[in-house]
Amino acid sequence: MMTIATQRLIIRPYEEGDLKDFHEIFSNEAVMRFCEPPYSHADSQKWLGYFIQNPIAFAVVLKSGGKAIGHALFKQLPGEEQGIWEIGWIFNQAFWRRGYAFEAASTLMAYGFETLKLHKICAETTDPEKSVPLMKKLGMQEEGVFRQHTKGNDGSWADLYWYAALAPEYP
Fold this sequence. Notes:
By secondary structure, this protein is α+β, with helices and mostly antiparallel strands. It has five helices and eight strands, in the order ββαααβββαβαββ. Helix 4 links the parallel strand 5 and strand 6. The longest helix has 15 residues, at 100-114.
């Protein structure tokens, strides 16, 4: 099981004690706007249990205080060649705009390329305002925009932005 420390964060496997912080993240309407409907308490229990049993996503925890403020998906992309992984992030709204998502994602990408020797790390979003700029800041390049490819929480069609970084090009 992977545990990585950054300057301000610890990225570690989920634990049962993370339920309160996990639910605080995933029950927030603004946080979930580009993902899926906000989670009920039962949804949070179910998904936290899933991530404990299947470590494809990790808690992003503040070193000071131990609060889980984020969720970091980091896994082999299903159906693709070995070495092509997906990364994703969802953070507690109270901690937006402080560089935590960049700190966690850039650390995971470096770990993926340098330690796991991955070939490619991909990310997708329907959020062109916050996530696309972060993907670019992480050194990812646009690989495509799937026009009106998925439905948003309000039922309207949304574009899906696909970005990736390749090991040979990664800083």
